[in-house]
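JOB MANIFEST
job_type = single_chain_structure
chain_count = 1
residues = 409
[input]
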Amino acid sequence: MNFVCVDVGSTFTKAVAVSGKGELLGAADHRTTVESDVLVGLDAAVKKTGVQPDEVLVCSSAGGGLRLAVVGYERLVTAEAGHRVGLSAGAKVVHVAAGKLDAVALQGLRAAKPDVVLLVGGADGGDEETITHNANRLAKARWKTPIVVAGNVSARSDVERALAGLRVTVTGNVLPAIGVSNPGPARAAIREVFLSHVIGGKHLSRGPRFASMVRGATPDVVLTGVELLAQRVAGDLLVVDVGGATTDVYSVIKPVGEVADVAGTLWASRTVEGDLGMRWSARGVADAARAERLDDLGDVDIDPAAASHPLDERLAELAMTIALRRHARAGRDLSGVTFVIGSGGVLRHRPADAARKIVQSALADHAGGWALPRSPAVGIDSSYVLAAAGLLAADHPGAAVSLLGSALT
């Protein structure tokens, strides 16, 4: 049995052909055809692998990916916990509101245009008033987009009653006790809402075929692949993925002793930098580099359709450096990282040595105020197998593990 695992990205669609034993059979890409029908580019990428698949598995970040808003109780506790869980679920968190929603806060929530609202608040047995108030406020506003409720279980019946008639999924609390994070149920619920409501709503393709193949948002799927790879690494793991529109950083930090964090600690974490990218967000890289006093590239404006640009390598170095600084500033201790993986088209389409040099340049940053990894091994996801492994993990875990073992060195 052969599979083709496809990531439909904002700029390129990447396809990886894999045997049932986890052997890498081929890889190809094609420009994402979001202006017409994403199936055009998807089918072309699959064909270019040279493999006739028994099954095609797809993840997608096209059309802006998954836009999530978090509504919580306290900004530094439950709202922050919801924010972290949203990122781990593959979302771009476009808005965070804390406390009781009023007219102004509701207006801000609408203006963010989220695809999904994650409603959290209160540890189990704690504050019930805020999450119940916010549920009633959303109901009175006749909220249209799906809502995932992942707050205080003691308020569950009141919240469900308030939201009756809306598109609601109720799941386990993201913060059942102060300092205890429970991301799994909310992450799964957000994934299901993305598949059932969001993909179709973005009108990326005519007919049901594309939606039937999609298994999740690309960052969520990649994090699954990262978590799987982390089981094979002796120390901590770090992955930096430089895309056309965003730069994502994934880390799996293995716990040592007790860690005090009232919002809970996610050992597998993701941050997404929506202003850092090689094409759509190239100007954001230049602005951020100037603010971080790293470089002054001037007014960078690159056509998203450009195949290459003279600034590509420098943009990649800067995007990675800034993204790593921000990831570490969010509370991630990277000093124990033993294996770093670089991903993204700017690395895949370069010789391995040149790609590693870009990653190593970012890792040599000593001015960001973050703990550097100590002489980590550096690898390049040259065939984009992290996403493929994440797509295979649920139903074909053996193939996923074999793929990671053979293709990432």
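[summary]
The longest strand covers residues 12-19.
The first helix runs from residue 38 to 48.
exit_status = 0
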